[in-house]
Model the fold of this input.
Amino acid sequence: MGRMAVSLIIMAVFASAPAVAYAHAPSNVDVSMTDSGRVQVVVTHAVGNPKAHYIYKIEVKVNGEKVEEKEYKEQIGNQQVDSFGIAGLKAGDKVEAQAYCIKGGDRKGEMIIE
Done:
């Protein structure tokens, strides 16, 4: 590889570094049951501008099978909060929620139904 090609690769890596530095996975995904029997997902994702940098999607799985998915256009403050009505949940079921950042990164949370 020539010097010019190496220089171009190095420049490309450094040019993309600022975008990657601002992208980050949510810091926490909390999955719980509400008193009304809905699955509540609270995603903590601290950002400077939640209209441009936000959790854009939450997927919910029960025992490994996707049962719900919601997409968002912004988040309010430093959290994305939603609840899901999932029929037929029973003791021992594993409920997982995966949250995705619009700028990259994701995190999962889970609970076992009691």
